[in-house]
Write a structure and sequence with these properties.
With 438 residues, this protein is mainly α. It is built from 19 helices and no strands.
Length: 438
């Protein structure tokens, strides 16, 4: 069990979620996510403090404890499928994909913990250096006192005009240069420590950060450094121009929609890696989604990072995914629930058990054909989804509630209740896969 020294908080998983299996653990993980966001709301978005870093680490510690249990449960499910159906079977492959997804989520959490620990260590070192610098500066000023007095006396002889018009600007200029040099040095140290960069890499990255700051982004060079570091850690292989551009967009999105650069860049990376989008298109797509209301519950970027892979595996395009989620969000539907509904349909389709096939037999002729194509590998889960929804809309009007819910539960699992099928229906009816790309 991974724990963060000094911040470990134990979770009574046996009594809270393990007895409900993987679904219960996922619910617990969402609860921990919401607790973490609530705790962080006490701090300003751009604040850098030991208290904020420790709050983040506390939340991550709780998340990784649950995620480890989720990963273990997924591994056990995979081993069970291998025993019952054989290695390479459809059931085993499905469980293997689920297990791999949980491993990826666990590794992402570990990287976030390592990154946050480095940031905390860097911040403490910056404080130590800053305090030491000001002590040395104070001593230097004391030591230079006599020389300053002599300079002042000399200025008096030249005249009051020279004293007032020249002495003050010289002092101000000296303070400005000292401050700028200190910031630049801090920037280099932070980048080196956080990214393990070489001297040449540090020089290049410090130049990028300084350029972003000069262009008016961030309240300080230190804030820009943090954003650039998180962008580079979460999105690899960006050249200098793209790194600067993407960091700026991430800061703008985070600031506009009350999020964190780390969450924004993680979400952007899932679009880039899963859909092959370039960074520009990925961030523009997220901006459009947020503008259309997808971030109303302040969870859009976190959800994108977690669920994008499910839409891709189901056969949905990036356009379709954003159309579905943005139109559902317009009606106030929680993104977690929307994503879980799609995921549950995907899992039920991949399993294609007896109840699922029975439900499919009640569908229209066209939908049954799509299902036959799906079984032959000629159609995707998204094709099934698009075919099923119109059929369900018709069934809702013609079938008794009990029969309708039985069919719905076979298709959508435990997320299918009378009140929830309306979400699914309205969500699809609203979206109609309208063009979405910018």
């Amino acid at each position: 069990m991974e724990r963060i020294e000094g911040l470990s908080i134990g979770l009574d998983l046996d009594s809270t979620a393990l007895n409900r299996g993987l679904t219960g653990l996922k619910d617990k993980l969402r609860t921990v996510n919401s607790e973490m966001k609530a705790n962080l709301s006490a701090f300003d978005r751009s604040e850098r403090s030991v208290a904020k870093y420790e709050t983040i680490l506390t939340g991550l510690n709780r998340k990784i404890e649950v995620q480890e249990a989720v990963t273990k449960s997924a591994r056990q499910e995979y081993e069970k499928m291998v025993r019952e159906h054989g290695e390479g079977s459809a059931e085993a492959e499905k469980a293997a994909r689920s297990y791999n997804n949980e491993i990826a989520a666990l590794n992402t959490l570990r990287r976030r913990i390592e990154s946050t620990q480095r940031q905390l260590a860097d911040f403490r070192e910056e404080q130590r250096i800053s305090q030491s610098r000001w002590t040395r500066l104070g001593n230097a000023i004391d030591g230079a006192g006599t020389r300053l007095v002599n300079f002042g006396e000399h200025s008096k002889k030249v005249g009051g005009f020279l004293t007032t018009r020249l002495t003050a600007p010289i002092i101000a200029l000296g303070a400005g240069i000292t401050s700028l040099a200190v910031e630049f040095e801090d920037s280099s140290v932070k980048i080196t420590n956080s990214l393990g960069a070489t001297a040449d890499e540090t020089k290049y990255l410090t130049k990028v950060a300084s350029g972003i700051y000069r262009d008016g982004y961030g309240e300080s060079l230190s804030e820009v450094d943090d954003a650039l570091i998180q962008t580079k850690q979460n999105i690899t292989n960006l050249n200098e121009e793209d790194l600067s551009k993407v960091t700026k967009k991430a800061m703008l999105l985070a600031n506009t929609f009350d999020s964190e650069v780390n969450e924004v860049t993680r979400a952007g990376n899932t679009l880039i890696t899963n859909y092959g989008l370039d960074a520009d298109k990925a961030f523009d797509l997220m901006a459009k989604g947020a503008q259309k209301g997808m971030n109303f519950s302040k969870e859009m970027f976190d959800n994108m990072a977690e669920y994008t892979i499910n839409f891709k595996e189901a056969g949905f395009s990036a356009n379709e995914m954003f159309a579905i989620l943005s139109n559902g969000a317009k009606k106030g539907y929680n993104l977690d629930r929307l994503n879980d509904t799609l995921l549950e349909f995907k899992l039920q389709s991949e399993d294609s058990g007896k109840a699922y096939k029975s439900a499919m037999s009640e569908m229209s002729k066209d939908t049954r054909k799509v299902f036959r194509d799906y079984e032959k590998g000629k159609a995707t889960v998204s094709d099934l989804y698009k075919a099923v929804i119109p059929d369900l809309e018709k069934m809702r009007k013609s079938l008794p509630d009990k029969e309708f819910n039985t069919i719905g539960k076979a298709l959508f699992g435990k997320l299918m209740k009378l009140c929830r099928i309306k979400i699914v229906q309205k969500r699809w009816k609203l979206s109609k896969l309208e063009p979405y790309m910018i």
